[in-house]
Amino acid sequence: MHDTVFANQIFSVLKSKFTKDTIGKAISVKVKLSPLSHVTKESLFNAYRELVKESGFEHIRLDIEPLDLKLRCHNCKNDSTVSKVVFKCPHCGSQEIELDFDKEFFVESIDVNS
Ligand SMILES: [Zn+2]
Hints:
It is a single chain. This protein is of the alpha+beta class. It has helices at about 1-15, 40-50; strands spanning about 25-35, 60-65, 70-75, 80, 95-100, 105-114. It is built from two helices and six strands, in the order αβαβββββ. The site of zinc ion has 8 residues, from loops.
């Protein structure tokens, strides 16, 4: 299951940054999830919650944001950035488009406010 794989990635990033002395610090981790992924925000959130249970990291907030997709239009040659799956070029309405599938998920940043 990919949701568990992604949750594990988040967890290993956290483990590489923090020891268990994170109590009392407001930490949030921001991740980007592609709208093309089969993993939903909810399933990733649940997998993460399950994984960090009793780890000392359970108070770390997880923000899941949609990953911007790159869209190339073969008709008008414009490149666009979209945050959801589209089937038409936003410039000319052509369906001769290609969506960039490179990335499905990544950890963008970790914020610490102590
Ligand atoms: Zn176009």
